[in-house]
């Protein structure tokens, strides 16, 4: 059999292949040759074959049949064999293969070899891919080598020890004695790996951490020597003495100083020294400064030092090197919570980074900008952020838009500014905003009463430009529905009023209905808006026509709305104005901006009603309070066992849904009082023609033969409902209706209100009865009717 | 800790791959492809840091890379390594290669893959930085090469 080709021959051959298929063919041919060579147990060329195999492995071809061969090479006496054998083991083997355990003995022998390079190879392999069993077996050898005076071996043993500790944490104790004089080494390689070992041990065990705190002075000394010592050609990198070691030591100091006053105290000076003396013209200097800054921020440093650190970061931001700017922004993001004022000083630089071309820098600058926004800088910052929103990548837009909403919510200097800002976001990044921003914005607009005309005008103009961004379109159509009259009457104070006719407005809204760009939700909004305009505009016929067309729409939601609106025109026209009148000011329940609109008040308060007897009345509705107190009394009967509606109440959601398809269960009629011949029943229903009105009917029945006279039924109710008077004589039945409007119930939805009923009646000549009853109702009862 | 060191050329052909954490072979090749894809579309004037691709561990890991002529040197590291420090380390490694091969170029890496591994072994061990002194590294590699030569055996 001819000698197997050399590695470089193989490489040369493979490089001549012009296609992937050709390459594969060559490789397969060579593999076959290698396999037969392995079968022949050829000792001489084994190293060559394995080398070729490793090359093919790198290209992505299977090489597992060489695993055993690597083991044979490791067992050989020749350094060449061992070298390639160990490399092969590290590249091809791992602890998942059982074969690897066969290495243990070889490694053990080689750890005690007479040649340091063989020992080095063994340490390297063990430290790279040693399994826990191997580590357990060989830890003793490693520990021995950790104490040797040979610096080449010592540094490798240190890193090998790190790997052993990672694999078998219980063995950490074993290495403790050997660490005693690691730091007194002169050799930088050993120092470096020793610091790595100490770092690993401190990170893993709090006991070790407190034990090694006493090394702080020694570490400080070493660092000082590195800085102060003159030029040392051996360790110099671009004019700085062993920057890698400096960085390592700084990192270890960070871990040791964190949370510990004494250690932090001991390192204050050296940190200040490094921070001020390090040359920053090259990357190495900046790497050290960066590490110093991180350490200062993490330990309990004095405030002067912290300010120094942040200023260094600020200088980094101005550096031309992108990498430096990147790490600066990352660190500032970490420190902005704790050292807010100091970071504020660099706000303008940070804002400039928004314009950077690099995507990673832009993102960090954006996050940092949001963290820095406050009441003082809101106007300026918002200008920059809006400009950024215009020009940034789509990935950023959603986050940026949410951030802007949040910031505007918190710090808006005026309502007009707030509305302008939100409008700007909707027009530039409308399709990326979150779903809950639409109801939030509507609520904001409703509550800014004086801005209605201005808002609706601006929204109308925006609609004329672009109807593709659904959130904008939805808000706009809602506003036009509400404030269309202001729009056509040209009442705007804030800016030049536009001239627009009713027909033009209706054109736009109808356009939304037919456009392909509109989602079903948007269409719903438009239809409702058109309907609302029927009480604000005079072109009734046109509106009626539109509404009736959609009565046969394929979209079920649209159809339902249209049909109900139609009914409103036909049968209940007298109710139309009341129904479609302006929305009242909505109570703001969410205080934290668009991200937190789910209210939990309802859930917690309605549980009050689930208890049978309340010892005291908690949180009565304010106006009703006085009345109730006058009447006194202590019988408390909870009326409604409410189940909390499953749909979470969002601030504006239900109000927009005029027809309120939220009814869940129906409250059955209940008998509130049944004694002495008087039966009082409550029934609950929605008014039949007008679904926005809830009616609680109190039905008093006289079940005795005689009349009941002097019947007095008073109710103290909150102003939300109207209470008619009733007759004083009950022959047989009396019906009293309490009427509630949906909006009014909504307004108090999470609170409960009471109807306190003193009942007095006389039966015959002698008997008279007085009692007091308190009936609790929750605003949520709207949902249960 | 360094999770992987990859050297590939402008077309994505691997010149040296070293993983310090176990990955199956096909996964290794996929990672090389993904990393090449991420790194090659970077402009020349953006920063040298990237989030790791999803195959290699996602945003917990960073890819720190440097582009020298026709080769990309990519180190995949976790948060325990200093980003700027790794940049310096790559420089040290390349300068060491330069000293060992005398004006190193891509062809040297192609034809002496094993030697490059040996040099790397003296710089990074088990995913951790072992030695950063260029002269030290070169000296040790030289001595070992001499040992190999002195043995009467077949050349690889």
TrEMBL record, chain A:
Residues of the GAE domain: 665-778
GO biological process assignments: intracellular protein transport; vesicle-mediated transport
Gene3D superfamilies: 2.60.40.1230, Leucine-rich Repeat Variant
Superkingdom classification of source: Eukaryota
GO cellular component terms given for this protein: AP-1 adaptor complex
Annotated InterPro entries: Adaptor_Complx_Large_Subunit (IPR050840), AP1_complex_gsu (IPR017107), ARM-like (IPR011989), ARM-type_fold (IPR016024), Clathrin/coatomer_adapt-like_N (IPR002553), Clathrin_a/b/g-adaptin_app_Ig (IPR008152), Clathrin_app_Ig-like_sf (IPR013041), GAE_dom (IPR008153)
Keywords in alphabetical order: Cytoplasmic vesicle, Golgi apparatus, Membrane, Protein transport, Transport
Protein location: Cytoplasmic vesicle membrane; Endomembrane system; Golgi apparatus
Membrane topology: Peripheral membrane protein
Cross-referenced PANTHER family: ADAPTIN, ALPHA/GAMMA/EPSILON
Family of the protein in this entry: Belongs to the adaptor complexes large subunit family.
Protein name: AP-1 complex subunit gamma
Organism: Cyprinus carpio carpio
From TrEMBL, chain B:
Any Pfam family matching the protein: Clat_adaptor_s
Keyword Transport: yes
Classification via InterPro entries: AP_complex_ssu, AP_mu_sigma_su, APS3, Clathrin_sm-chain_CS, Longin-like_dom_sf
GO cellular component terms given for this protein: AP-3 adaptor complex; cytoplasmic vesicle membrane; Golgi apparatus
Chief subcellular location: membrane
An example Gene Ontology biological process: Golgi to vacuole transport
Record domain AP complex mu/sigma subunit: where: 1-147
Compartments where located: Cytoplasmic vesicle membrane; Golgi apparatus
Alphabetically ordered keywords of this record: Cytoplasmic vesicle, Golgi apparatus, Membrane, Protein transport, Transport
Top-level taxon: Eukaryota
Membrane topology: Peripheral membrane protein
Physiological role: Part of the AP-3 complex, an adaptor-related complex which is not clathrin-associated. The complex is associated with the Golgi region as well as more peripheral structures. It facilitates the budding of vesicles from the Golgi membrane and may be directly involved in trafficking to lysosomes. In concert with the BLOC-1 complex, AP-3 is required to target cargos into vesicles assembled at cell bodies for delivery into neurites and nerve terminals.
Family: Belongs to the adaptor complexes small subunit family.
Protein name (record): AP complex subunit sigma
């Amino acid at each position: 059999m001819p000698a197997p080709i050399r590695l470089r021959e193989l490489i040369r051959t493979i490089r001549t292949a012009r296609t992937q298929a050709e390459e594969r063919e060559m490789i397969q041919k060579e593999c076959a040759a290698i396999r037969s060579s392995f079968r022949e147990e050829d000792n001489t060329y084994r190293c060559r074959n394995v080398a070729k195999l490793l090359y093919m492995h790198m290209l992505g071809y299977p090489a597992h049949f060489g695993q055993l061969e690597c083991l044979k090479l490791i067992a050989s006496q020749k350094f060449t064999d061992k070298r390639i054998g160990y490399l092969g083991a590290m590249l091809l083997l791992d602890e998942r293969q059982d074969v690897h355990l066969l290495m243990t003995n070889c490694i053990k022998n080689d750890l005690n070899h007479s040649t340091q390079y063989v020992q080095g190879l063994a340490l390297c392999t063990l430290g790279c891919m040693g399994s826990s069993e191997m580590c357990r077996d060989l830890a003793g050898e490693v520990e021995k080598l950790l104490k040797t005076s040979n610096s080449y071996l010592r540094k490798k043993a240190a890193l090998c020890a790190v790997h052993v500790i990672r694999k078998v944490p219980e063995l950490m104790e074993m290495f403790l004695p050997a660490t005693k004089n690691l730091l007194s080494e002169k050799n930088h390689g050993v120092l470096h790996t020793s610091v790595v070992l100490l770092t690993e041990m401190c990170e893993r065990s709090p006991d070790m951490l407190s034990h090694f705190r006493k090394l702080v002075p020694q570490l400080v000394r070493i660092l000082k020597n590195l800085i102060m010592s003159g030029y040392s050609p051996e360790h110099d990198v671009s004019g700085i003495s062993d920057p890698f070691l400096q960085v390592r030591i700084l990192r270890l100091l960070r871990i040791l100083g964190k949370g510990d006053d004494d250690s932090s105290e001991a390192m204050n000076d050296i940190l200040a020294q490094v921070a001020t003396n390090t040359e920053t013209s090259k990357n190495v200097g900046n790497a050290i400064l960066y590490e110093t800054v991180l350490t200062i921020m993490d330990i309990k440093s004095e405030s002067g030092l912290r300010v120094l650190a942040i200023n260094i970061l600020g200088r980094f931001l101005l550096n031309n090197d992108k990498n430096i700017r990147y790490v600066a922004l990352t660190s500032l993001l970490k420190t902005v919570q704790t050292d807010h004022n100091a970071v504020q000083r660099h706000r303008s630089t940070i804002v400039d980074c928004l314009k950077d071309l690099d995507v990673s820098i832009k993102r960090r600058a954006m996050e940092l900008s949001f963290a820095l926004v406050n009441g003082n800088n809101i106007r300026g910052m918002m200008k920059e952020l809006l400009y950024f929103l215009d020009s940034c990548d789509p990935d950023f837009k959603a986050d940026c838009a949410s951030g802007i909403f949040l910031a505007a919510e918190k710090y808006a200097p005026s309502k007009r500014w707030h509305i302008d800002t939100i409008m700007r976001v909707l027009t530039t990044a409308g399709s990326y905003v979150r779903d809950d921003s639409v109801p939030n914005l509507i609520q904001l607009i409703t509550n800014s009463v004086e801005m209605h005309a201005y808002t609706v005008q601006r929204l109308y103009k925006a609609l004329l430009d672009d109807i593709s961004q659904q959130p904008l379109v939805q808000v706009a159509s809602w506003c036009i529905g509400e404030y269309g009259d202001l729009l056509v009457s040209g009442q705007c104070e804030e800016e030049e009023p536009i001239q627009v006719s009713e027909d033009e407005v209706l054109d736009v809204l109808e356009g939304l209905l037919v456009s392909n760009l509109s989602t079903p939700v948007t269409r719903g909004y438009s239809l409702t808006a058109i309907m609302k305009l029927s009480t604000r505009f005079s072109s009734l016929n046109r509106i009626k026509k539109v509404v009736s067309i959609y009565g046969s729409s394929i979209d079920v939601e649209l159809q339902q709305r249209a049909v109900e609106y139609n009914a409103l025109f036909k049968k209940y026209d007298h109710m139309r104005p009341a129904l479609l009148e302006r929305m009242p000011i909505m109570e703001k329940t969410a205080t934290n901006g668009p991200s937190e609109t789910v209210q939990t008040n309802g859930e917690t308060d309605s549980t009050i009603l689930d208890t049978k007897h309340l010892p005291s009345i908690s949180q009565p509705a304010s106006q009703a309070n006085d009345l109730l107190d006058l009447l006194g009394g202590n019988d408390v009967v909870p009326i409604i066992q409410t189940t909390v509606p499953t749909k979470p109440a969002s601030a504006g959601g239900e109000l927009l849904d005029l027809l309120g398809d939220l009814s869940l269960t129906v409250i059955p009629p209940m008998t509130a009082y049944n004694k002495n011949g008087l039966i009082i029943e409550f029934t609950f229903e929605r008014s039949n023609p007008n679904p926005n009105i809830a009616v609680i009917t109190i039905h008093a029945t006289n079940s005795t033969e005689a009349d009941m006279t002097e019947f007095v039924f008073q109710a103290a109710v909150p102003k939300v409902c109207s209470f008619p008077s009733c007759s004083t004589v009950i022959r047989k039945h009396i019906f009293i209706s309490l009427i509630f409007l949906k909006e009014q119930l909504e307004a108090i939805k999470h609170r409960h209100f009471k109807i306190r009923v003193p009942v007095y009646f006389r039966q015959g000549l002698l008997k008279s009865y007085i009692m007091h009853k308190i009936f609790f109702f929750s605003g949520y009862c709207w949902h249960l009717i | 800790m360094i999770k992987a060191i990859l050297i590939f050329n402008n077309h994505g052909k691997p010149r040296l791959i070293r993983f310090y954490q176990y990955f199956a072979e096909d996964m290794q090749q996929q990672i090389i492809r993904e990393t090449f894809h991420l790194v090659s579309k970077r402009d020349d004037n953006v920063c040298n840091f990237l989030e790791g691709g999803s195959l290699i561990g996602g945003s917990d890991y960073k890819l720190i890379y440097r582009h020298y002529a026709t080769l990309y040197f990519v180190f995949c590291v976790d948060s325990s390594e200093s980003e700027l420090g790794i940049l310096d380390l790559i420089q040290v490694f390349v300068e060491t290669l330069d000293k060992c091969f005398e004006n190193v170029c891509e062809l040297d890496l192609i034809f002496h893959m094993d030697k490059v591994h040996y040099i790397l072994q003296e710089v990074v061990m088990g995913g951790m930085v072992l030695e950063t002194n260029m002269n030290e590294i070169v000296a040790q590699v030289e001595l070992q090469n001499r040992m190999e030569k002195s043995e009467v055996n077949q050349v690889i």
